[in-house]
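User: I'm putting together a small comparison set for a docking exercise, and I want a reference complex before I start. The sequence is below, and the ligand is FE2/S2 (inorganic) cluster. Could you produce the 3D structure with the ligand included, as structure tokens?
Assistant: Of course. I'll restate your input first, then give the structure tokens for the complex.
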Amino acid sequence: MNEIRRQRRNLLIATSAAGGVAVAATAVPFVASLTPSARARAAGAPVEADVSKLAPGEMMTVEWRGKPVWILRRTPEMIASLEGHEARLADPASEEPQQPDYASNRARAINPEFLVVIGICTHLGCSPTEKLAPGAPSGLGDDWPGGFLCPCHGSIFDLSGRVFLSQPAPTNLEIPPHKWLSASVVIVGEDDSTA
Ligand code: FES
């Protein structure tokens, strides 16, 4: 009787081991079968975005390293609005290391017309929503300058992704490394320090 049990147990162990080898054996061809671009994306390769069809005031999203990266084409009025409310911001001069050096300015951008920013709240990682238009229609008060609202716990950010004072989010939204390849093509995830 014991001998029969022992033989069954050995058979089960052998079957499990064979199953394990099969999984490992199929995993390698799967990875190898990815195209070069898919492998690069999985590894977090830089992503190119063409902004030529983006009208002033519009925003588009690209994915980099699994994160949404917003590209907002600001109007002249939006750029001008960045000055009026800085006393209400937690880090108006972008002193916290939330951006590359070339984005440590009021517009937090290489070209003030285009904000390139990671659309993830610095509190607990929700994705803020657009509240681009200024004033009362935003639901955020007459003095709202335009920006973003995180629906999770109410953090608000301006049109440069700068967080207002006394919000759950401790810092400004993060600016990813990026550089412009032409007037209308930006590469996210690469700049002259990472290239
Ligand atoms: S995750 Fe944005 S306010 Fe909490």
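The two ends are 69 Å apart (CA to CA). Helices lie at 2-33, 36-42, 76-80.
User: Thanks, that's exactly what I needed.
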